[in-house]
Amino acid sequence: MDKTEKAIITEEEKEILLEIMNISFGKAAADLAEFIDIYIELSIPYIHVLEPRALSGYLKKEIKDNLDCSIVEQKYWGKFKGDALLVFSAISSRELLSLLDTEKDWGYCSDPIDVLEKESLMEVGNILIGACVGKIAEMLNDIVTYTPPKVIIETQPLDSFFNFQVEEDSSIILLRTAFKFKSTDISGFLFLITSNESVEWLKSALSEFMERS
Amino acid sequence: MDFSQIPYQINIGLVIVDRDLKVIFWNNWMAMHSGIKDEEIIGHNLLEFYSNLDNVRFLKNFRSVISFGNLSFFSQKLHKYLFPFNTTTSFDTGFEYMQQNCTMGPMRDKDNGEINSVYLTVQDVTDLASYEKKLVEANMLDGLTGVFNRKYLNSVIEKEFERHVRYSRALCFLMLDIDFFKNINDNYGHQFGDFVLKELSARISSALRDVDSFGRYGGEEFCCVLPETDIKFAVAVAERLRQVVVDEKFINGSSSIDVTISIGVSASCDKVSTPEMLIRSADEALYKAKETGRNKVVMMDEE
């Protein structure tokens, strides 16, 4: 019980974290545009603290409205660690392919388009998650590494997917933002599910951040 | 323990480049497979040696690692390979070049933490990709005849139908059946029957365009999906197929027989508005061909 109380973040810490997310995502969007030619709008982020057992239900509810969605999952691992979920709503595969590749030399390839779509989704997702998580970590003086992205395309039942290994006696800090690729119809949500292990560190990193600024 | 040898000796390709893609490190694995010694490439831009990497996709990933410090994964499924190396075996893997999974990640300055270079690992996954390719093929093809199987044909019909609906392109379908196949089996044995199925598949496959999909629907029944084809042309194709079967005797060992086929032709239209109806219409036309004498092509009723 003691541990749980400590793990939950205060309103003030929430405010700081929101500010950090705002700045990080702004920088991420700016750098994506400047260096990678990916133009993205990230909306105002949102923080949600919830119990582990409520997580699956929460995500299912959030994602349900986007029936044709595809999800890219990637774990990030530093002092700041957790799970990143990038939920794309109804994807146009041709638009997606054009995000990374303006040359469109897919003619030689015998693979069906859905394989390429899946792989492109992972590649775009990897860059987007890397940009957002990387900028947050940078502001908190941390360096993170990543697992290879995994992708789930709509038809699978979501229940089997959301099978997080979390301690019962803990809280989860969930960061959420909506994104949209400019001049395309590609949009969706980014969820960062902060691991309970890094909550303590996060709290001290937040107070350090305040002292610095 | 001296660990400094590991990067050189490890059974994986390891390359380090600076922020301008100039090569700083090139391990033995890379030297062995590329035929380029480290002293030849170090100090040179990687793109000078591998111009295939001078593409938007690779460079975007590179800039992402430099800017955000994330890892970039170049999967075999999407990229096939980054470095065009020969495969390491003389057995046929089905691939021209070694298939690779590559990972790119940041390297930071020890003092200030700035990303000053980028590493790239290269893993040979040709064997895995080759197994996967064989499995995928096995799942698509009919074991006896080597043409598409029913399961795969169904997916082709679904996909082509979707295309037909979306872009309003013409789509035709042939259902064909060997006449009196039971008699062939009964009189010449099942081995000869199998020979007829194989020979017929080969003759028909070579008479079709690359865009057409031909497969075995079951037993002695075959079908053919003809995308972007109107019904007049489809009937002509069907007639050609009937000809290539009837023109030459089927000869195996001492047995030699004439084989004929009947063909039903259907086309997608207002009346035929689902993949199932496309198949059923061709099947009905085939039935009519059988009823009215066999060795002929019958078009579905158009009214």
In short:
Chain A is of the alpha+beta class. Chain A is 46% helix and 22% strand. The radius of gyration of chain A is 18 Å and the shape is globular.
Notes on the structure:
The complex is a heterodimer of chains A (213) and B (303). Chain A has 213 residues and is α+β, with helices and mostly antiparallel strands. Chain A has a single domain (2-212), classed as CheC-like (Chemotaxis protein chec). Chain A has seven helices and eight strands; from the N terminus they run H-H-E-E-H-E-E-H-H-E-E-H-E-E-H. Chain A has helices at residues 2-7, 11-36, 52-64, 93-100, 113-139, 158-161, 199-212; strands at 40-42, 46-50, 70-77, 82-88, 145-146, 150-153, 172-181, 187-194. In chain A, helix 4 (93-100) packs across helix 5. Chain A starts with a helix and ends with a helix. In chain A, 38% of the residues are buried. Chain B is an alpha+beta fold. Chain B folds into two domains: 6-132, PAS domain (Beta-Lactamase, 2-Layer Sandwich), CATH 3.30.450.20; 141-299, 2-Layer Sandwich (Alpha-Beta Plaits), CATH 3.30.70.270. Chain B has twelve helices and twelve strands. Chain B has helices spanning 6-9, 28-34, 38-41, 46-49, 56-68, 76-79, 126-140, 150-167, 181-188, 190-206, 231-246, 275-291, and strands at 13-18, 23-26, 72-74, 100-108, 115-124, 171-178, 213-218, 221-227, 250-252, 255-257, 261-267, 297-299. In chain B, the strands form three sheets. Chain B has a five-stranded antiparallel beta sheet with strand order 2-1-5-4-3. The longest helix of chain B has 18 residues, at 150-167. The termini of chain B are far apart. In chain B, 35% of the residues are buried. Chain A binds chain B through residues 28, 31, 35-38, 100-103, 111, 115-116, 118-120, 122-123, 126-127, 129-131, 133-135, 138, 143-146, 148-149, and chain B through 55-57, 60-61, 63-64, 66-73, 75, 77-78, 103, 105, 108, 113.
